[in-house]
Amino acid sequence: MRHTMISAAALGLTLAAGAALADVTPAVEARQGQFKLYAFNLGPLVQMAQGNIDYDADAAGVAAANLAALVSVDQARLWPEGSDNATIEGTRALPAIWDDLEDFASKFSDLQQAVAGLEGSAGTDLDGLRATLGPVGAACSACHEANRAPE
Amino acid sequence: MAVVTSRTALGLGVVALIGAAAFIGLTRADPLPRDTQEALAALQPDPEAGEAIFWATGCASCHAAPGARGEDRLVLAGGRRFETEFGSFAAPNISTDPDRGIGGWDLAAFASATMQGVAPDGRHYYPAFPYPSYRLAELQDIVDLKAFMDTLPASDRANDPHDLRFPYSIRRGVGLWKRMALEDGWAVTGDLTEAEARGRYLAEALAHCAECHTPRDRFGRLDRDRWLAGAPNPSGDGRIPGITPATLTWSQSEVAGYLSSGFTPDFDTAGGTMAAVVASLGQLPREDLDAIAAYLARVPPVE
After folding, report:
1. Does the beta carbon of B269 lie under 8 angstroms from any beta carbon of chain A?
2. How is residue A148 annotated by DSSP?
3. Which residues of A touch B272 (CB under 8 A)?
4. CATH code: domain of residue A65
5. Mean pLDDT of chain B
6. CB within 8 Å: A151 and B241
7. What is the mean pLDDT of residues A19-43?
8. What residues make up the domain containing B109?
9. Residue A116 is part of which domain span?
10. What share of chain B is helix, strand, coil (3-state, %, to 5)?
11. For a tag on chain B, would you pick the N or C end, based on fewer CB atoms within 10 A?
């Protein structure tokens, strides 16, 4: 019995060490690529909303639909333990994410809801785009405020 | 021998007394000058104009409850904590609650707090509260700001104490710091256009950009030779970026667009403490944000 317990403890330690050593680089690169795709599709929408380029209903609709598809990607494998900025280089993801994963998930769900609103209105007219883009930016910032370190 | 000892003790006692008297004198909190009080009383409060001042000064960024969004940012219940090298500061309740907030304050108390950093009971406020910037504000704006804040909801949340390291825990010491650190003039001088001057007023007096974006010396004084050149994050990891023309390469319209929406020119969004700043500044009219951008272009470039 005693032996079994010690073995279990040893096994647990091995698993923990194994998990810590697992390479998180692909996950970090994938999630950073995901955010680049968000930004790439937000680009024309922000430009139109700010009046820097002419409003184009088709282009706005496509960009919003792309965003909706992007935020539906399951996040589970993109945020492994040990991929925070206290543990590794090359990320600004704060340990706060893993301290409160429920809050992180809730902020992500806020983003999905805001993008759903954008998808419904971005291709209708400029006022619709402007009214629904603000909440998307606010959802981005809400998570960056709590979970992303300054550069 | 005994005589020498008692003389020495007497001497030390005198020195200690002089030292204590000097400390008390140098650290005393000055009340609001009488002419300022009279000038305040002569001004007509305009709460609608005060709302713009409220968003420019960013009160909600620190005094709204942690994580508050939208309308909840108008409930200035306090409670947010700032972990700094001096210890942990707790933002107080500045809602209209008469007991736990500042609902019972008159205009002189409000002006004394925001412009002199002196509480109604005569104690100094720590400069985590940006009165070193607000003291450059127009009295009319202070009057309007109070009139607007008087319309906001009350919260009965009780204040948390600060938790500071010695010697910063000695509040009287702030009086000494004020004598060394407070500035009366603008940091950016020279011939400014009307828009640039408006931007300077917004940035230096109200929005207090320098409190985080300018590095400090070992006494915690802002380094005016490196104005807005970037600084260590005062409450966390990383650096607050430089925003002089040497490092901020965005166009003026991109700067104003960012302050309005939070979107950077490459369509990232504001994060960290800047997210709350944008949530406040974004409420200002576009011409004010353009003015801030015009001002930033006139800040001496420092890498």
Report:
1. yes
2. B
3. 144-145, 148-150
4. 1.20.120.10
5. 93
6. yes
7. 90
8. 34-181
9. 24-147
10. 45, 5, 50
11. N
The minimum CA-CA distance between B279 and chain A, rounded to whole Å, is 8
Question: Does a structural domain hold residue B22?
Answer: no
| Cα-trace Rg, chain A | 20
Same domain, B121 and B147: yes
Report residue A21's pLDDT band, with 50, 70 and 90 as the boundaries: low
Q: A82 vs A2, which has greater pLDDT?
A: A82
Q: Which of B274, B277, B236 is nearest to B83 (CA)?
A: B236
Q: Are residues B126 and B43 in the same domain?
A: yes
Give the nearest chain A residue to B286 (CA atoms). Answer: A50
Please tell me whether residues B114 and B235 are part of one structural domain.
Answer: no
Is residue B20 situated within a structural domain? Answer: no
Q: Domain containing B289 — which CATH number? A: 1.10.760
Number of domains in chain B: 2
For A13-81, give the DSSP string.
HHHHHHHHHS--HHHHHHHHHHHHHHHHHHHHHHHHHTTSS---HHHHHHHHHHHHHHTTS--GGGS-T
Reduced to 3 states, what is the DSSP secondary structure of residue B163? strand
Calpha distance A96→A115 (Å, rounded): 24
The answer, yes or no, to whether residue A2 has pLDDT greater than 60, is no
Chain B's closest residue to A40, CA to CA, is B267
**ipTM (interface predicted TM):** 0.76
Neighbours of B272 (CB within 10 A): 25
Closest CB to B271: pick one of A39, A49, A141: A141
Please report residues of A whose CB lies closer than 8 A to that of B238: 92, 149-151
Angle (CA) A134-B281-B70 rounded to 5° is: 50
Task: Please give the pLDDT value at position B9.
Answer: 75
- Domain match, B147 and B208 both: no
- The answer to whether residue A151 neighbours chain B at the CB level (below 8 Å) is yes
Contacts of B273 (CB under 8 A, 6+ apart): A145, B61, B212, B235
Whole-number pLDDT of residue A4: 42
Arithmetic mean of pLDDT, A43-58: 94
Cβ–Cβ gap A85/B237 under 8 Å: yes
Q: Is the pLDDT of residue A132 over 90?
A: yes
Chain B contact present for A96, CB below 8 A: no
A interface mutation test: which of B263, B273, B274, B283 has the most A CBs within 10 A? B263
Asked whether residue A112 is assigned to any structural domain, the reply reads: yes
